[in-house]
Design a protein that fits this description.
It is a single chain. The protein is mainly beta. It is built from two helices and 67 strands. The strands form twelve sheets. A twelve-stranded parallel β-sheet has the order 1-2-5-8-11-14-17-20-23-26-29-32. Strand 61 and strand 62 form a beta hairpin. The chain is elongated. The chain starts with 31 loop residues before the first strand and ends with a strand.
Length: 773
Amino acid sequence: MRKNLLAGLTVTAVTGGTLLATGGPAQAVEPTVFYVNKAAADCSDQGPGSEAAPFCTIGAAAAVVTAGTTVYVDGGLYAERVTVTRSGTPEASIAFIARTSERPVTLVGPTAGLVVDGQHDIHLEGFNVSGAADVPALDLRNASNILVAGGRFTMTAVATAPAIRLVDVTGALLEEVRATGATPAGGLTMDAATSGVTVDDVIVAATPIQAANEGSVGIRIDGPRNTILGSDVTGFSGPAIEVGPGASDTVVANNRILGGIGYGIHNRGATGTAIANNDIQDRCLGGVRIDGASSRVSIQNNVLRNNGAFSQVYCDRQAPAGVEVGVYDEAPAGTVIDYNNVWHWNASAPSYSWNGTLMGLTRFRTVSGQAAHDRETTRNQDNVDSANSAAPGYQEVDSAGLPRRDDPAVPNTGAGPITYADRGATEPAKHPVSSFEATLDLGTSTVSLDASASQPGFVPIDRYEFTFGDGTSVAQASPRITHKYATPGTYEVTVSASGADGLSGSSTERVSVLRRTATVGLLALSNLRYVGTTAPNLLPNQVGLTATAQYDLADAGNGQVALLSRASGLYVTRTSSDPGTLNATSQVVGTLEEFTIVRNSDGTVSLKGSNGLYVAAEPGGAVALSASRSAIGPWEKFHQVPVADANRSLKASVNGLYVVAESAGVKPLIANRPTVGAWELFDVVDLGAGQVGLFARANNRFVTAESAGTKPLIANRPTVGPWERFTMTRNSDGTVSFKAVVNGRYVSADGAGAKPLIANRTAIGIWEKFTLG
C-alpha cells in the first residue's frame, strides 16, 4: 500500500484530479484536539473531550469541531451515523482519525455511516462501517476538498444503497478504502455533479451471494474529470467500472478487475475516456465495451484475459459469448485501440468486436485500422517493456506506486518517452536475490560471509549490507567480509544486496560461533585411516592427519559437542532420515549437529548422535560415516589425535639423531637418522587418562613395548592394548620422555642410540630424553 498522500492535515493535489479549495481567506487557526473513547469509564458527551475525559460518541465531537480540529477516536463499536456539520479551511482541515493499534473503530447498525453534507476541507482516516442497509456507509454530498484514507465500508446483503456515494462532490481523494456491496445501487457511485475526484488504491468487492443482484455496478462514474487508479474491483452483475454519458475526460488506469457477470469496463457514451494499463480477467460479458455516443476513447496498454467466456459458475451459458474488446454504435470513429495484450478463452473464438462484427486480431486490424501493436498472448513476459507511455491516462507509476523500470534482458518495443514501460497494472520489478555462504573459524571466533552468489535485479548489485546479529552492521561494495564475535552464541545474520535502482533483496541465516575446546583428527579403528571431509561427506579415507581431516571440537552445552570441519568451515551434521549420514554442511548447531563423546576402555572414543545411535566408519573407506549403530563395535571406534601432536618426529638427546621405524616398521625403532622422512614421523594419540599411543606413519601401526617391555619397541600393532600404552613426561629442558605402562619403565635409546629403543630404564637420563619435532 502507498503512504497517505495528505501532507499533515492539508489536502493536496494528486494525479488525475485536483482537490479544490473552498471557503474564506486563510486565517491563523489555533489547533484543537478532541478524544473519543466509549470504553473509558469517565467518558461523557458533556465533558471536555480531553484524553483524560473523552467524549463517548463521535457525534459529540463532530458537533464542536472547528477549522484545525483533530479528533482521535479509540477502537470499539459505535452505533452511530456521524454527520460532519462544520468545515475546515485549505490551511486547517478538520480531521477525524481512528486510533486502531489495538482494535478497529467500527460504526455499526442499519443506519451506521459517515456523512459529510455541505462541508469542505474534511479528513476522515481509518474508520470502518458495518451493517448499513438503506443508507450509504460513506455518504459525501455537496462537499469539496475531502480526503478519506483507509477504512472498510460494508453493506448488508439486503441493502438498497451503495456502500460509498458521492453526490455533487468537487475535489476529493478516496485512498486505500474498501467498499463491499452489490446492491442494485452498486459499490461506489459518483453522480453527474461530482468532478475532480480521485479514487486511488481502493478495493470494491461483491460477496458471492450479492454478485447476482441485477444491475449492480462496482464503480459508477457519471460526472466529469474523475480518476480511478490502482484499484481492485471484483464481482457485481453489472460492469466492474461503468463510465456514464456525462463522465467526460475520465481516467481509468492501473486497475485490477477480476471475475464478475458484467463487463470489466463499460464506457456508456462518455467522451474522452482514457482506459490505460488495466488488468481485466474473467468477466462473463466481456472485457471492455465502448458504445453509444462515445468519442475520443483510448484503450491502450491493457492486459485482458479470458473475458466473454462462461467458465465461471455465475455466468449465463445461454448468452452469446463476449469479446475482450468491443466497440459499438457511434463509437468506432473516435476510438483508439493499441498496445493491448489479449488472450481469449478459446483460440478459435473472436477476441474483438467492431460495430457488432466479431473478429480476430488480424481482421480487426484490417477493418478498424487499430490495434497495430496489440498481441494475442498469455505470456507475462510479453507485457514487459512494450507499452505506449504517451497513451492518455498513462501513469508514471504502476498500481503499487512503483516507478517504471527497464528490464535489460527484454528489447524496448514501447512507444512514447518511456519505451520500457510495461503493459498492464503492474510494473514487475526484479529485485536482487541475496544469497550467501558462511564459514566459521572457531579459533578466532570469526564468521566469513561470501555473498558473491547473489543474483542482480535489472541492474548490477553495487552495495551489500551485512547485519551480524550482535548489534553491528557494515555496508560495503564487496560481497565478502569477516566478522569477529565477542561472545559465543548463535546469531541471525542478514545480508541485503542492492542495485543502483534502489531495489534490494535480503536473506537471513543463523550461524553458531561456539567455544572451541580442542582441534583433533579422528583415526578410524576399522581401517586406521583418518576421517576426512570430502565434498561434503565424511569418509575414513585419509592417510595421515591431512588438512581435510582436522576438526574443531566445540562446546554445544549439556555435555555435548559439535564438530566443525576446518576444511569446509562448517559443522558436521547428520541427515534426519535413515541412515543418518554425516556431512559438514551446517552453519548452525542444533539437534542434528550435537554429539556425545564416549571414552572406551581401550582408549578409543565413540560418537553418539542425538538420535541415540553411534557413528560408524566402514573399513572400505568409500562409504560416508553415519550415525546408525545401536552398539559400539570396532567400526564405531576412533582414536582422537590432537592436530598439534600429529606428524611429529623424535630426536634422541643422546646422539642428536631421529628415531625411525626401520624398514617401514618391519624392524624395531632406533635413533640413527640424521634427517626426517616418512619413516621418522609419528602421531601421538590421546588414549585418555594421561596416556598416549605412538602411531607410526611408516606403516600405520602402533608402537608396542614388545613382550611386555622385555624386547625393543616396534611398530606392528593395529590396535592398542596394554603394551601399546605410554605416559609422556615433559622435562624441564623442553624434552619429553615416554614410560611404558606395561612395565613402568622409561623408553631408552639404548647403547647411546646404537641399539634399538627399549623400555627398560627406571629413571630419566640423557638416553631417555627426546625432542618432539
